[in-house]
């Protein structure tokens, strides 16, 4: 494309965006005047302060913390073209996560809405949302996941075979491992080969388009993400048609949806069945929601247990009668590791805030919140509240020996939008950690606790370690 055309398109997009932000800023809700906080400068609001917080060691949390110190637990702001109220505390989490009659809408950014498509689980509410949740519940249950155990186990062993005596970036290794697991679980994708490479390349582009500017013009991250999404959908179309024609049959997540819940192109519209578009939007949703989160959790956990070793795995290995490999019943009986996972999710708070549209009018801390407003729940503060978690900076899995107060531990969320991938995430982590701890010792090559400027909190330095066999 000629440079002049590209330049004109960029200018047009900037003009349209400014106009859009201007209109939005003029439409500031009157009722928000009673909420403490600042809406910042005209048009841009507090967007610059918000964006610059991404590069601070504690990421976006520094933006929130600064304002909490100034205004208290509930404050308003105007960032990236959006008015929102940020709040924290158990009461706020109960109201926002359970909603009235279980009706809780997520509040995705425009880029996420466009990439994932309108029928994604993340964009449906009420009955339609409940129905989608029911469809994916069985294949993601502990029993439903049993058939993937051997694949995950072998992949963990093979991945770790490469670590002996090496320096590795744990985040990169964890990212490759979790993507191979979910690609295989959803559509039986082989862990190596051309298809895997294409899948991986497209997925990376899709992932990075979420936090990009919403400019759909060639050369931008958003445009590349949309194109990669289209290629991913073409790949899924081809797999779906092979499955329907009987050319290929697999025992995976996609197959279970196609057989039980999907509507073939020549079938009459049926509300209880998924169209191919719904099928694809939701497969992509699971990939996106499940990949970075599990990658981050596995990486933080490896970092925390280097500092606080876990003995459970060597005991499991020692108690094993003769057999040398991990079994399904062992992986389902790791009580200490389960607490280590919870403490990792508390301490690192991988999803630092949950975004919602207020489903009803309500009052909190004496302030009136109006239905439809964009609300963000600050989870980092809840997870670091010394009134609930004494000495909150300390990594201490024994906090989870006794039940935790409701709505104060939100590692996998709570209420109707609680994470449906919890069993898969725990399975992957338990298997990987078992083999890691039984085979190796490792040490961090850098001391750095800062987080990456991404929506999912990950160690900025990717956690480099040196690995030695035991
Ligand atoms: C350790 C790894 C994981 C963590 C920490 C995690 C965390 C969360 C949290 C906190 C939420 C709720 C967000 C909110 O309320 O706004 C959530 C929702 C969700 N998670 Fe996970 N997740 C993980 C793994 C997975 C996996 C493996 C999958 C897919 C197989 C998955 C799929 C989803 C989906 C689809 C939702 C949206 C549910 C809805 O809106 O009804 N997650 N996750």
Helical content stands at: 40-55%
Uncertain runs: none
List the ions, cofactors and other small molecules found in this model: protoporphyrin IX containing FE
Count, helices: 18
The total count of strands amounts to: 10
Shape: globular
Which CATH architecture?
Orthogonal Bundle
By CATH, the topology is Cytochrome p450
- Integer tally of domains: 1
CATH superfamily: Cytochrome P450
- Radius of gyration of CA atoms, rounded to a whole number: 23 Å
Beta-strand portion reads 5-15%
The CATH C-level name is Mainly Alpha
List the helices and strands in order.
HHHEEHEHHHHEHHHHHHHHEEEEHHEE
* Mean pLDDT over the full residue set: 88
Helix vs. strand class:
alpha+beta
Strand order of the largest sheet: 1-2-8-5-3
GO molecular function, one term: heme binding
Protein name: Abscisic acid 8'-hydroxylase 3-like
Pathway: Secondary metabolite biosynthesis; terpenoid biosynthesis
Subcellular location: Membrane
